[in-house]
């Protein structure tokens, strides 16, 4: 009983000695001198829109927002782009790389076990630690100076993460991985909106060409009519050339618009990653009516719906973990190394019981004279984090600005389009009046046809506004996150 009490007392004394030793060692570690305060993140009231921005519809975009246009061609093009676009391949590769980095950091904090095997043919120095083995004395079991040493066994190492340095490094790498996932969603949004912009740019050009062809038919008839009159001496040749100049101007517009269609198709082909024959034919369709929607309030909801903001937020979180890891580096680190196997100077004795070798090596590392480097590392981590916070704050303000500018622009375009529709109706009334006079024989066919030109010109202006509204609607969808929703 006394023996057990003595052993217990010795264990308590040994524990107290360890605590006292740690207390004496800790002040010898490097001290933190350069740890500033983190910058403040943006206030919620700065994530709201002005009260004078309103659209006809309210709400957030759906996940596959482009399907609301009910256009099979557009659906196929966006699906092809999301599968094959080079930017999508790059984004997915970055995600895979980030996941590999997470696994690399995570495995570095777990138990490491390796198999060891070594064969060493060596000449033992007579003046070294193994000097006696350099002699050739068979009676003493010495047959030097040449030996073939063999080592075989298992080695293990384990870092004891007392201060959380490795846990912080793992959390930082996970933050980067999550940021890369959000960036992939941001690239998907970028690609889908770019494809939609190009697609409806092509469709707008198709409709413009159709209107210009109508105008061209009128211009051709006008040239023929004026030539006939000039041939009979009923009017001057000047009117013929004026009509021809108008016809040539329309033909130039048609050529220019057809060239624009080719350029847009090439941009589309490069965007979706298609080969020379990999882009399907794009048939003309009517432009859809505007379905722009703007939420009543944005606040923190915008932060959850914008993938680029979520990515930046994850980078900020990762920077905090890097700061924690940099702080933990100031404290002592512990590790344990072990070896179990066989070691012998003669291969014939390698796997005998007497050749067994066991090593157990606890290690303690104190950063006593490394304060300069560690403080510089901590300062760099803190400044890098503050920089990310400011970039995040600016990105939030830019996001609110994008929504506000696009929403207000859509508001203005909608008002302009309504006025332009009334203008088309007014000009069409004048055209209908001239055509009615022509049917009664009160005016010429040329006058009736030329009365169509102002209507066509106003329809071109209305088409331009409709195309701009559609482009701004897609831009608003992008500004609102395109249906992305951060996981809670």
UniProtKB/TrEMBL annotation:
<keyword id="KW-0449">Lipoprotein</keyword>
<keyword id="KW-0472">Membrane</keyword>
<keyword id="KW-0564">Palmitate</keyword>
<protein>
    <submittedName>
        <fullName>Outer membrane efflux protein MdtP</fullName>
    </submittedName>
</protein>
<keyword id="KW-1134">Transmembrane beta strand</keyword>
<keyword id="KW-0732">Signal</keyword>
<dbReference type="GO" id="GO:0015562">
    <property type="term" value="F:efflux transmembrane transporter activity"/>
</dbReference>
<dbReference type="GO" id="GO:0005886">
    <property type="term" value="C:plasma membrane"/>
</dbReference>
<dbReference type="Pfam" id="PF02321">
    <property type="entry name" value="OEP"/>
</dbReference>
<dbReference type="InterPro" id="IPR003423">
    <property type="entry name" value="OMP_efflux"/>
</dbReference>
<dbReference type="InterPro" id="IPR010131">
    <property type="entry name" value="MdtP/NodT-like"/>
</dbReference>
<comment type="similarity">
    <text>Belongs to the outer membrane factor (OMF) (TC 1.B.17) family.</text>
</comment>
<keyword id="KW-0812">Transmembrane</keyword>
């Amino acid at each position: 009983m006394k023996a057990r009490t003595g052993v217990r007392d010795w264990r308590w004394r040994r524990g107290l000695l360890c605590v006292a030793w740690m207390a004496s060692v800790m002040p010898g570690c490097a001290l933190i001198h350069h740890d500033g305060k983190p910058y403040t993140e943006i206030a919620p009231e700065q994530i709201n829109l002005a009260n004078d921005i309103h659209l006809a519809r309210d709400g957030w975009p759906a996940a596959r927002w482009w399907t609301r246009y009910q256009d099979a061609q557009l659906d196929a093009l966006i699906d092809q782009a999301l599968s094959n676009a080079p930017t999508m391949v790059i984004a997915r590769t970055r995600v895979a790389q980030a996941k590999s980095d997470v696994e690399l950091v995570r495995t570095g904090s777990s138990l490491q076990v390796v198999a060891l095997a070594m064969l060493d043919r060596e000449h033992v120095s007579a003046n070294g630690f193994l000097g006696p083995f350099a002699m050739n004395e068979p009676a003493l079991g010495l047959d030097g100076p040449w030996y073939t040493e063999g080592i075989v066994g298992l080695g293990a190492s384990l870092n004891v993460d007392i201060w959380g340095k490795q846990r912080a490094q793992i959390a930082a790498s996970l933050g980067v991985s999550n940021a890369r996932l959000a960036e992939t969603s941001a690239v998907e949004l970028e690609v889908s909106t770019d494809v939609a912009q190009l697609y409806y740019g092509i469709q707008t050009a198709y409709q413009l060409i159709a209107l210009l062809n109508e105008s061209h038919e009128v211009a051709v008839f006008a040239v023929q009519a004026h030539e006939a009159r000039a041939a009979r001496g009923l009017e001057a040749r000047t009117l013929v050339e004026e009509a021809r100049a108008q016809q040539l101007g329309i033909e130039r517009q048609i050529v220019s618009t057809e060239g624009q269609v080719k350029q847009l198709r090439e941009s589309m082909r490069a965007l979706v990653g298609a080969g020379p024959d990999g882009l399907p034919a794009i048939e003309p369709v009517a432009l859809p009516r505007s379905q722009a929607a703007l939420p009543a309030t944005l606040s923190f909801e915008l932060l959850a719906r914008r993938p680029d903001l979520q990515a930046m937020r994850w980078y900020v979180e990762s920077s905090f973990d890097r700061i924690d890891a940099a702080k933990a580096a100031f404290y002592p680190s512990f590790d344990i190394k072990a070896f179990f196997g066989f070691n012998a100077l003669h291969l014939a004795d390698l796997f005998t019981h007497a050749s067994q070798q066991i090593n157990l090596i606890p290690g303690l590392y104190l950063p006593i004279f490394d304060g300069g480097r560690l403080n510089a590392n901590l300062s760099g981590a803190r400044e890098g984090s503050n920089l990310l916070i400011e970039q995040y704050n600016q990105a939030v303000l830019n996001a609110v600005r994008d929504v506000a500018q696009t929403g207000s622009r859509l508001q203005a375009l909608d008002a302009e389009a309504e006025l332009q529709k009334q203008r088309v109706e007014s000009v069409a009334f004048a055209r209908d009046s001239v055509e009615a006079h022509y049917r009664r024989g009160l005016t010429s066919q040329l006058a009736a046809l030329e009365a169509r030109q102002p209507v066509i010109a106003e329809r071109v202006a209305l088409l331009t506004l409709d195309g701009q509204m559609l482009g701004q609607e897609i831009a608003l969808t992008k500004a609102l996150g395109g249906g992305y929703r951060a996981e809670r």
